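If your schedule permits, I should be very grateful for your opinion on a structural question. Please examine both parts with care and let me know of anything in them that strikes you as inconsistent. The record follows directly beneath this note:
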Amino acid sequence: MRGLERAELQRLSRRSDARGAAQLTAHATLLALTAVLLTRARGTFWLVPACTLHGIVLVFLFCAMHEAAHRTAFATRRLNDALAWICGLLLLLPPEYFRLYHFAHHRHTQDPARDPELSQAPARRLRTYLWRVTGLPNWISLARTSLGHAVSGRAEEAFITPAKRAHVVREARLFWGIYLAVLIVSAALRRSEALLYWGLPALLGQPFLRLYLMAEHAGCALSDDVYENTRTTHTLPWVRFIAWQMPYHVEHHAFPSVPFHALSQVHARVRGRLCVTAPGYLALHRGLIASLLKDNRVRPLRSA
């Protein structure tokens, strides 16, 4: 069991509606508080920082969606599916499409031919790395993909099984119908709340989510060994909280049935086996940038 006995794994894999509700309530409360800060900052120079802070909390609902996609956020399946649907709507990420995409990633982690997360080649230049950090390429790709599903009525990606294609198309059409309705109502009422509390914060929060997500596998081996192809990042408790404990990422990939609230216990048992770790996100990205420069794929700027 790669470091866990079967009985222990079964115990750690127990899901809890109460633990899921507590985590979600805390995350939602933080989101409400940042929305209050954003409201109070309107008309002041604090608007952009407040909007960014709200956006960080908002986009890290991706981690809640990820947990719900595994159906480990709650013990009750319907609660998991409802959470995935709501978060997916906020993040332009239809949940059934994401679930199929993500499970293919788990089955084929770091396999260039079959891991959908490796559909883009690794960044070889600093400007490519920085462009991806903005999150804009990801959003553009998500929008193009889901809108393509909605308009064409086809979902032909290799990881989408024939039985799921109609579901993915229906979901995309429903999402885009809702987005269009929000746009029409906002324009008709001349209201900017959707832009101020949702669209703009989501864009401003994207770089922080990208920096977090890139740490999971960037620079790891193209291997089928989960202890080599995935990274655990040691970080502050509040980062683990907002990321639903996913910085314990090797632990999650090794034992995907274990819910977020038990990953620290898994870490305590397997940390001696971890091959790829980082002491923090800043340190990790400093290392990634340094390796880009060292490989002479980017020439450092010369002083005048």
Remarks:
- Residues 297-304 have pLDDT under 50 and may be disordered.
